[in-house]
Amino acid sequence: MSNSNLFLKSGFVRAPLQNGVGRYVCQLQRIVLKFCKSHGGSRGMRDFIEQDLVDFARDNPSVVVYLKPRRHRSPVVVAEYLNGDRVWMSMQNKTQSEITKWIENMRTQQGDLSAVRLRKYQYTDHPSIQGPWTPFTFKNPELNVAKLPNPKFGANDRLPMSATEQLRIMFEKQRISKEEVKEEKKEE
Amino acid sequence: MVLGGILSRLFSQDVSPNVVKETKEVINTCNKLIEDRVSRNFAIVHLLGKQWRVTDGDLLVVEGHWPPNIGDQIRLDKVLLAATKDFSLIGRPLVQPGLVNVTATVISKGLSHTKTHFKKKRRKQYMKIHFQRLPQTMLRINNVEITNRINEAPKNVY
Where mainly located (chain A) (predicted)? Predict the structure, then answer.
């Protein structure tokens, strides 16, 4: 079992600088691709640079792309965001398509999402618009002016019917039906 | 679409002239409230199997694979309820199309933190650990707007 969650920070949903209100700004600002020109671990990274990098840079003019060749070191991608987050990721032995997917993920996220556990999945400045519910909402305002104690409001009608009461009601019903039968006979 | 609360009950009963008059008055008042933009609107929208109460400027995080990409403006069409401070429009189940306009922008798409799913059965030599990272999409609600007048014939926008 993994204990990595013990030190995981928790947080709430936030967006930097009111992003998305009025305009949208891509949060990825800078991406650095570090790779080796000769080692096999950088193979996928070199393929990505040869085939996809120019398109990536053209499609995202707001993102600064750096290439950093270095000898006999494993390939790494570092992404930096507007909110100051820095995401470091090893690309050792990853294929070109895997690298494409991870870089797309880095481009679309705002900051380091994986570093926080979200406590809520919604954020609102206006938690209630029609007013929070209280026990008195949708109740008859008659109670406000009633003089207490009052048998109408104070009566305890929450208790279940007792056995004696049930018997009495059954008896009454029987008597009424008998009386009705008698009256009908008289009319005949 | 009906007006919520007491009025919806009145529609099902036999309609006397007084009731009709009162209904029209209520509808006119609501229309005036919409025009004057007296208070903030909110809506309950159905999105990826969940119901969200949204109002202008809200942030939502929906989990799971979802095609919209960052920067996309989308309209949330499944509106179950739209309301202002003073009245609510309750759909059955949805508010009529074109009456309420809920727009949102996709802000961010990424993967959540690594969640651990630990399964164990005691005394059965069974133990599994699954690690997963769910795709998370963050939405900003741009506006919740009641566009039409209430009780107007529906414009079939679909």
Answer: mitochondrion
